[in-house]
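sorry for the late reply, my laptop died twice this morning and i had to redo everyting from scratch. anyway the thing you sent over, i finally got around to it. pasting the sequence first so we're on the same page, its 204 residues, then the predicted structure underneath. double check i copied it right bc i was rushing
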Amino acid sequence: MRAILVRHGESEGNQRGIIQGGLESQLTERGQRQSLALAAALADFPVAQIYTSPALRAQSTASVLADKFACPITLDERLRERHFGLLQGLSFDEARIAYPETMRRLAAGDPLISAPQGESVVDVSKRMLTVLNTLALSHAGETVVVVTHGAALEILLWQLKGAAPDDELSRYSQQNCSYSLLELTSAGPELQRWGIGTHLLKVN
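ok and here's the structure:
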């Protein structure tokens, strides 16, 4: 089966430079336009179902895609964004002042650092991989879309690319409404392409 991994469209928190994590934030108008551009880019895929994080910004993106493909949406808590603990709700500038070393290591993509009272890379990786294992069993021969978040996707891609401790998470950064293609085979997940965003070039 094929899984199309999607980062949600631009949210109000993204626009304001806020560390969102588990906090809620609606899509901006630009985020809506990005979602429509993504739906057009995926038009040739035979999408059978969409799985999404319950966060509003992810659900809104998933709804645009579901309208395009006339397929059902399933909410899955395991697809939520990485929880950033005490950093959540702070701007990036505020967080750099309050937690300089943590922010330096997070910005560098260090997979061994977690935010104070936040979720670890291992925790996020486990729940994201569990979703993929579930999909492989229930959607053999089909194509599904998985809508999730920036940091969660970075961690999943890092894991799929080998999870080397010295490999920086930041190299797997995804722009809003970019997508990646993943084949789930009997031998395990095979990442074919990642970070596809050419459909967003004309979105202002």
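The CA atoms of residues 114 and 120 lie 5 Å apart.
thats about all i looked at so far, will dig more tmrw
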